[in-house]
Amino acid sequence: VVATTRPETMLGDTAVAVHPEDERYKDLIGKKVVLPLVGREIPIVADDYSDPKIGSGAVKITPAHDFNDYQVGKRHNLALVNIFDAKAQLNENVPPHYRGLDRFVARKQVVADLEALGLVDRVEPTVHAVPHAQRGNAIIEPWLTDQWYVNAAELAKRAIAAVEDGSTKFVPKNWEKTYFEWMRNIQPWCISRQLWWGHQIPAWYGPDGKAFVALDEADALRAASAHYHRDVALTRDEDVLDTWFSSALWPFSTLGWPKEMPELARYYPTSALITGFDIIFFWVARMMMMGLHFMQEVPFHEVYIHALVRDDKGQKMSKTKGNVMDPLDVIDQYGADALRFTLAAMAAQGRDIKLSTHRVEGYRNFATKLWNAARFAEMNECVRQKGFDAKAVAETLNRWIAGEVERTAAAVTVGIETYKFNEAATAIYEFTWGTFCDWYLELAKPILNGDDEPAKAETRATAAWVLDQILKLLHPFMPFITEELWDRLVEVGVKRENLLCLSAWPVPTGLADAVADEEIGWLINLVSEVRSVRSEMNVPAGAKTPLVMVGASKVVRARAENYEETIKRLARIEALSFAKVAPQGSAQIVLGEMTVALPLAGVIDMSTERTRLVREIEKSRAEIKKIDAKLANENFVAKAPPEVVEENRERRADFEATMRKLQAALKRVEAAA
């Protein structure tokens, strides 16, 4: 007894396979059976493909119409009987009364004829995978045809070696494993396609069907004349090359190959290929094979595999899900720079991008921040000065920002060169928004509004120079706004020599100043800590509080007095004083060897604030408990979509971070009380 889900294909059966270790059939191996309805004798063969645990353990083999059966047929040298024509109708290789029947009509007829002969054991429903065409949804029928193949295993040898010896490197490196798995198990590559469009197969057939493969028809005719010793008419193969075959030629065919063009000599091989992981085999591997075969050199030295862009829930974007974000719509709403920067800032190696318009909007605001900073500089006459030397600045604030520029330029450069675009984008973002806009410009205001003309002139020149460096470092991520500002910022001052995109990349050195870093770093840390405590303890934004420095050294006292007005303005301090003991009812901050106290009595109700903090801590703790229960549930983790599980883990981390801040604030309230 043999089972099948496609009864019509039994007309093309050429064997029955059983497992070599199946005791039920050992004595039948090598014998023959008669194929019903056809009357043809077919052998019983032993093959591991047959699974003794499934059905009867005996499997009908139709090599011409099943991929697995085809492999069995190759192993046992079985005949290939093709029973279908191009329209999936039965052909001349079946008994006469089946010829011309559609495959599904023939299916019913074969079952009826078998039942009439008493040869059907039973008919039962079964669920199995049936391939369907993507566009027309028709059931796909494996069909034996003549096709053109490439010996991919031979081509793969050099392509494998090139990655093994480092001639071509994958970034991240773990994608080499995917590449090797494909290449080391590569099968003959069918390169002919029955499509309307594509590169037509360069093969012509003679009167007897002999193929002549040539560069063009003239070459084919010459070869045919030599073969037949007379002129003959040739018919060109109507098939076209597989799209990936044509694409594999791209690195050199676009540069004039097979002619020896200057462009080919200049641009092949290229330095890097940027692509997605899903076409490592389809495109990357094939470009490697073709490049090494035709050009005798790898087509690129590095392959950067970028992340997959998913929706904000972590699901793959698809039209059927309705979660596709049209980049043109996003650009219309937020700008190309904002979208470009978002993708770069989220492109961590080895992680997919969860794209949301909220993130794009945030980076649109970043672009606005940069524009406003440029306007501030313009309003304060911060213009480009010819011959400006950042190493020669004297003001502590300017020495500090010059050193920050050097460190940022190095970080952005390393990030780009190592394909860690998220780290590069984060470095320039934090410098621009935080270091330059939030700190440098704020700390520079007293100088710009003061009466010290040399200090004012130096600060103006420094601000203009720093802004220029920002535009250069940010240009790869936000090319449009930076190029626009590059042009506008010299409406007054020294004119540009060229476009921003053609300017030299900044490589500042020798600008770091430890003394300036320590002094300005102390000031920023002080203001930041005071702001943080005010926020944690729910101090009203408009309320000003005293600040008492306890145990301050002479150096710290001098700094505090020097920057007193700045500290008051930025930290919303009413008065700054020094003491040996912290006042009663004050929130305390430890900064090095000094303690900073904020007397909050009368500013906030300590008892009410304590109650609020305890309540918020309990709410966070309850949420963490709920999430832990979910994540501890094996059914939830196994059945829930991966993006939902990941979202719960991220929410838990957020609640934990919030709870830690609340607990720190509670400690301060209890200490103050």
Describe this structure in words.
The protein is of the alpha/beta class and 673 residues long. The protein has five domains: 7-116, Isoleucyl-tRNA Synthetase, domain 2 (Alpha-Beta Complex), CATH 3.90.740.10; 149-201 and 237-306, HUPs (Rossmann fold, 3-Layer(aba) Sandwich); 328-512, Orthogonal Bundle (Isoleucyl-tRNA Synthetase, Domain 1), CATH 1.10.730; 516-604, hypothetical protein PF0899 fold; 607-672, Helix Hairpins (Orthogonal Bundle), CATH 1.10.287. The chain has 22 helices and 20 strands. The strands form seven sheets. A four-stranded mixed sheet has the order 2-3-1-4. Strands 18-17-20-19 form a four-stranded mixed sheet. A three-stranded parallel sheet has the order 6-14-13, covered by helices on one side. A hairpin with a 5-residue loop joins strand 9 (203-205) and strand 10. Helix 3 (152-164) packs antiparallel against helix 4 (175-184), helix 10 (327-334) packs across helix 11 (336-345) and helix 13 (396-417) runs parallel beside helix 15. The longest helix is centred in the last third of the chain and has 31 residues, at 642-672. The chain starts with 14 loop residues before the first strand and ends with a helix. The relative contact order is 0.05. The mean pLDDT is 93.
